[in-house]
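Researcher: Going back to the complex we discussed earlier. I've cleaned up the inputs and rechecked each line, so this should be the final set. Can you rerun the prediction on the complete assembly and write out the structure?
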Amino acid sequence: MLQLIPLQPFITRNTMSFADKYEAVIGLEVHAQLATASKLFCGDSTAFGAAPNTHVSAITLGHPGTLPMTNKKAVEYAIKMGLACHCEIERYNYFARKNYFYPDLPKGYQVSQHTTPICKGGYVMIKTETGNRDIQLNRIHLEEDAGKSIHDIEEDYTCVDYNRAGTPLIEIVTEPDLHTADEAYQYVTEVRRLVRWLGICDGNMEEGSLRCDANVSVRLKGETKLGTKVEVKNLNSIRNVKRAIEYEITRMINLLEKGERIIQQTRSFDASTDTTFAIRDKEEANDYRYFPEPDLSPFHLSESFIQNIQEAQPALPYELQEKYKVAGLSEYDAAQLCTEKEISDYYNKVIKHTTHYKAAANWINGPLRQHVNDAKITFDQLQLSPLQLVALIQMVEDGKVNFSVASQRILPVLIGNEELTPLEVATEMNLLQTSNSSEIENWIDEVIKNMPDKVTEYKRGKKGLIGLFVGEVKKRSKGKADPKAVTDLLQQKLNA
Amino acid sequence: MFSFTSIKDYHADLLHGRTTCVAAVQYFLAQIATKKHLNAFLEVYAEEALARAAQLDDSLTESGSLQGPLHGVVIGLKDVICYKDHAVTAASKILEGFTSIYNATAVERLLAAGAVIIGRQNCDEFAMGSSNENSAYGNVLNDADNDRVPGGSSGGSAVAVQAGLCMVSLGSDTGGSVRQPADFCGIVGMKPTYGRISRYGLIAYASSFDQIGIFARSVPDLAIVLEIIAGKDAYDSTASATPVESYSHLLHQVATPKRIAYFRQALEHAALDPEIAAAFRSFIKTLTDNGYEVEPIDFEYLDYVVPAYYVLTTAEASSNLSRYDGVKYGYRSNGNDVSLTQMYNKTRTEGFGKEVQRRILLGTFVLSAGYFDAYFTKAQKVRYLLVEKTKEIFSQFDAIISPTVPSPAFKFGEISDPIEMFLADIYTVFANLTGIPAISLPLFIHSNNIPFGMQVMTFQENDLCLLSLSEQMMQLASKK
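Model: Rerun complete. Updated structure for the full complex:
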């Protein structure tokens, strides 16, 4: 029986009730600004945050007579990403011109790779609720960025900053192979991790080093033809990618349910309302008049050039995760160690000197990560040598100190003092655990003396109080008392 | 009284104290003033040139040696070549008031070799034209007959050498813009192999065709300048990395090539002036009489070269000239209450001349969706065929000769149909389509007392062979 569904609730909540009826098809274009020191076609700096129009030579500004020269490092970075994504690397490359007029485009065309992307095909593996999935890529290509138009500084003028013009970008384009906002979230997260892992992009979405456009369409399940597509721009965080796609899917399904037509258009995401709004219809689309860039010679990539890049490629996060799991770490611990390359690098150095893999992971994912986050640094800046950590782990394993003393008392002293050993610190601070029974006995006697009521309760059968007494003894010993010895002695005395 | 015959003689005179760089510069400045009506120069750097000449004279006095191979050589630049801190406009209103903030690589090398830059020279706007009638700054007159055009687009540069206003000029040649005015003005004009001279600092017309060219009174003078400015460049990826030969020294030393071809269809072409055809045939006889083997070959593509050339060059030009948009530099239409699109439209409509607009529109059209394959792709196929044809011809011959232009210098306003004007390039565009070096040699005088020349082309990177053969031919012609 047909049921009437009130409009508002279904827009906001009941989309899932259409999950069986509709399928979303999503393709993502991620632009990653390459972390090269200079621009794609000239020596100007790419540093972010400089005063406007200070990284602008005659070449960046497109002055008459200037010509581009390709930055080899940018080519190398693009190949790094291609290899990490299992792409086929194009050996014969040339650039094309994409022609359009806009004030922040100095030459009146953007130099890009149109017909021959440097990386073809490939995939990026993401985690989903139902397991791992390979998101198929269409291509990764190189192109130059435009400058920045700023409309809100001057009332009557638009200001243009050309510092960004000519910065190298790779555009990573998926096939229409994603189906949920969550997959898109996972995909962009993984791409961000990869570019950072490879050191080719800082992944900063707020500063625009990583930008994402989403092409979204919906169709009835079982339909093979793609629905009318909408491109959503201005997604400046991974969270916004997800929200914008969620909104778009709901909006489109709503339109279809009402029997309305979806218009092919470009929309922008408004993060303050979590909605999208149309900025232009596709009918107004430009004819970009692509043709091969005649100012740049085509370039051939030699096998040895690619080989050298392949050999210098770091172990990738999913490879390390597998390795760690084989060494006995949990899925979670392994994943945590691979969120950033600096963390796994540190872990790898530590486990060169110890087989306490699990303990090392706990230290790194626990107190060390806490310290690094608090200090707003990264693991490569951590002033604790892997050997210091190894020694600390060993002391805990040997029962010389317990974990909380090690992490709360000894670690803070070690950080920043790479010449100290944990043993020196523990000895100096008198923190080494003791099983000397006369010393422990003194502490126990004090505790029993100070807590007569609790002792009476214990003796009447409230045996659970033993924990309280042990804790009190530990407190008095400042962590030095070996908990095992304390418990044994306490029981002897109380049961006497 | 200073007089100029060749760079070699000038340098000998300098070394023997018979003249000075200052005397040379003063002489040319006086000539420029006398011949002001020719409108060859858009700007003359009188004080600067004199100061530099004085400094060169001082250095020669002190050291007793020349500061470089172009010590005191007085050179003019076509107004499409960037010279730091000097205006450059491409003879267009759209670059009115624009000053270059850097040196073209060629200029950098000229200065390092001791040259004196005397001024910038008039030309067709953005190097588009065959008569120098398209300059925003007026026509350039042919010094041999002031009613006639000097050719184009490097008209000012050709006339400056023709009328003795400087020793050498740099021009640019996209489809014949050096060779055709050299032909019309009776001087030597060479377009080297594509990429032989860096294009960095040459205002682009059509990137894959453009090449800086040289005007001189003699082949040896031209050779000295070429060997200085040629060579690879870290600012131009299309510049050739092949080492530069010492053209001026090897000019008379290499064995002169003997196997020469000419296109049968070129001599049978309806547009060819009968007197030029006759002079050409008679020179073939001179060549064969002097031991050259000259053979006609078939060139079935002749009717396709001009259309292919105009499709491809205008396509590139439409994109290359997009940067002149009124936003960053140069001319901007005034009128405040207009939209961005209106600003673009007005600026470009007011800033570009008719011929430039025609070529931008044509180029935009051939690149448009729906027409790209029919025009651009097809023209590229023609270009590819021509390159293959060139390889085939030069596997059997050392050089190809042809008239440089089918007609001698015509009168101002005589050709108003742009298509007819395009046909003036029929013999010259082949070298630009295929990238081979080509030169126009001033061998003949027409019955109307106007000079005309002959074109010689050799294979890619055989610039030395071209120069040496040219020198031989000049000697032969002078002996006649």
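Model: Worth noting: Residues 65 and 468 of chain A are 83 Å apart (CA to CA).
Researcher: Good, that matches what I expected from the previous run.
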